[in-house]
Amino acid sequence: MQLHYGLAPDALLELPEIRSSLQHLQRGIEREALRITPQGRLATTLHPESQLGATLTHPHITTDYAEALMEFITPVARSVQETLAQLRDLHRITFNAIGDELLWPLSMPCYVNELSDIRIAQYGSSHTGQMKQVYRKGLTHRYGAMMQTIAGVHYNFSVPDSFWKALSQANGEIDSVEYRSSRYFALIRNFKRLAWVIPYFFGASPLLCQSFLKHANGDLELEKYPGGWAGLPYATSLRMSDLGYTNKEQAELGITYNSLEEYVAGLRRAVFTPSKSFEAIGVRAGDDWKQLNSNILQIENEFYSPIRPKQVAKSGETPTQALERGGVEYIEVRALDVNPWSSVGITETQMRFLDMFLLHCLISPSADLSIEEQLDTERLVTEVVLEGRKPHLVLTDEAGAISVQERLENLFEAFQPIAEALDESRESTPYHDVINELTVAIEDPEQTMSGKLSAHLQNSVGDQEHPAMVWAEQYKQQLQTSSLEFYTSEHVEQWREESLSAKAKVEQDSEGSFAEFLEAYFNRAQEKKQRAEWGALK
Hints:
Layout: H1 9-12, H2 16-21, E1 26-36, H3 49-52, E2 61-63, E3 69-73, H4 80-95, E4 102-103, H5 127-143, E5 153-158, H6 161-170, H7 177-194, H8 197-202, E6 207-209, H9 210-215, E7 223-225, E8 229-231, H10 248-251, H11 260-271, H12 276-279, E9 284-285, E10 288-289, E11 307-310, H13 319-326, E12 330-336, H14 348-363, H15 371-387, E13 394-397, E14 400-403, H16 404-423, H17 430-443, H18 449-459, H19 467-480, H20 489-509, H21 514-525
Antiparallel strand pairs: 1-3, 1-4, 1-5, 2-3, 5-12, 6-8, 7-8, 9-10, 11-12, 13-14
């Protein structure tokens, strides 16, 4: 739909209804972390299901690609402090279940001796569990096992109903699922234009372990540093480079964000278009499945993007079918490295920054992005990922050749009224404090997270203990010796019992062969969902 931007962002933020609605932003966090041995090696043990519950069905503690790559998922909450308390509790619960193992505090993995040490995550004998495992086998064949050990943090964000009501009225629009989805896609386009800002401030993988390069894909040439490190002098986030989650095969998909329909069509096309290079892998040899299929994407989740439009899927739905049915419910930001200075991989400062950043993207005018323009935005991200701390770095786009410093100063100026609205009715000014705290990193790139981390890792060469191990031990001790803040032992036991019971039921209900299950899944995945719920919202 054609959006109308009646009021300028500053004028919108003056409206009392908008200002009050901003006190009810909704957030959630998904944090990934590798389990490691006390010696700093990748843990080869199985996930402790008997203590924690089943990874297939647990609502908050599961695994990602590798069996050792844990994932902690907080529910939707309206308080930054509440979300962080929940996240700390999930870590406390886990530390009590993993014995002497630790959680690696960096995005890029620890020392991996052999690729065979990287066990693919296990989800049981049900067809759903098998599908998750075969999908991960496919990722290993397509992109290499090392990529399955990279950790990140995802930030889930949405605005409340009261915001949509006030915004639609201010712009003379009808509040509907279609309207909200169109505005969320406008947010995504603006995010793409500014995505380089995230690795500039919060990139935390300027260096990586040289052992990673032994097994990694990608043709990026890194310099070797003392202490077993490799990297680039001005890099910010090698996790977001071609060595990490960005890969050339997917860069050519041409998936755009100008409308929900366009996005769904592009993603679905990739799932059902054969790939010659992936056909060479083969799909199965008897009962030994190598991948789910040989298409460009095995399933929609394989599409790696720094931001995704999301709708909670019902049983049997694909992500795009959920979007077709209910529109965009929230946004998932996937561009964050694990913050090594936090016991849970993310800080309050980062969360409040993302609130302002995403609101800026939401309320600012957002023209469509052609595929060429989108590739330009991705080029800017690559420049900042590889040399974002380079003194006087200039980025060139449709606005011209402008220095990183000037671009960020302009952005922070636009943040001021947003911070003012968010800080309203508070005793303190946490959002203005974030602007002041990060302004230092605009003036001096070495004060960014990547700058500080690069210096810290290099200054620690020769220390008796690896700097990441110091953090890992410190965070485990810190969290294990403090009490649960939000959850209780009853929650832990309830999750354990219910997840194990749910997993057993899924296994019991699996009928027919796995091949038949997959055929039925992909037949359903091609069906277009009806928009029964897409009327005006009261």
